[in-house]
Amino acid sequence: MVYGMERSQAALVLVILFLCSTGCMSTIFGEPPQPTRTPVPTTVVVTETPPLPEQSSDMALQLSDLPSDYVLKDRSVMALEDVPSLAIQLGWLQGYAVSFSRRIVNTDDVTYIRQTVNIYASDDMNGVFLLARDDLRNQQLTPGSRHEIPFPAVGERSIAFRETNPLDNDRPVTYTVVFIRKNVFEKITMSGTNTDYELVKRLAQRADSLIR
């Protein structure tokens, strides 16, 4: 009888070994704990959206920038034919012009404000500024005169002039401001029978702030 029990125990050991080798032990005693796996982060490639090109119209003064008694007179994109050939050689790309007017009721008093915004291909705008400055300085006026006047700095370079013409009843006084910032050249003029130097300053500073 002892011999038979030993054979039974040996057979039981063989069965257990077989179960372990075939993975059945995991079914009987449950799955052993699995090591925790840290997920590998996925790299997301973000494509940067290129900025939209600047539009000269976005930098134009709006009617809300002027006193309430002014009205919009004209607003237009500039045609290539309107631009001097020298400006095109300097890299002119696009331009926009806007003008406003104010007329005092029951009188002949009228005031005009005009702004032009020009975008160039180059960031080196010094040549453009010098060309405009020298043209204003050297232009001969008959009759009348034009003189450089003190003016707060606007843009990266700027200059302002006051022109008088006693024989022009509609435009006896004209203020002109030109300035550059980045690749933008601007010119603002005010003329008429009721010009305002302080308003010209505010409009030039406002126009400068619209350049992005």
Which CATH-level-2 architecture? 3-Layer(aba) Sandwich
The H-level CATH homologous superfamily, spelled out, is PknH-like extracellular domain
Radius of gyration: 40 Å
Distance between the termini: 104 Å
Number of strands: 7
Model regions low in confidence, pLDDT < 50 over at least 5 residues: 10-21, 24-29
Tell me about the largest β-sheet: 7 strands, antiparallel
What is the N-to-C succession of helices and strands? Answer: HHEHEEHEEEEH
Residues in β-strands, percent: 25-35%
Task: Supply the number of helical segments.
Answer: 5
In short:
Helix content is 27%, strand content 28%. It has five helices and seven strands; from the N terminus they run ααβαββαββββα. The protein is globular, with a radius of gyration of 40 Å.
Structure explained in plain terms:
The protein has 212 residues and is of the alpha+beta class. It has one domain: PknH-like extracellular domain (Protein Transport Mog1p, Chain A, 3-Layer(aba) Sandwich). It is 27% helix and 28% strand. The chain contains five helices and seven strands. It has helices at 2-22, 24-29, 85-89, 126-138, 197-209, and strands spanning 71-77, 92-103, 110-120, 145-148, 157-164, 173-181, 184-192. Strands 1-2-3-7-6-5-4 form a seven-stranded antiparallel β-sheet, with helices on both faces. The protein is globular. 19% of the residues are buried. Mean pLDDT is 83; it is low at 10-21 and 24-29.
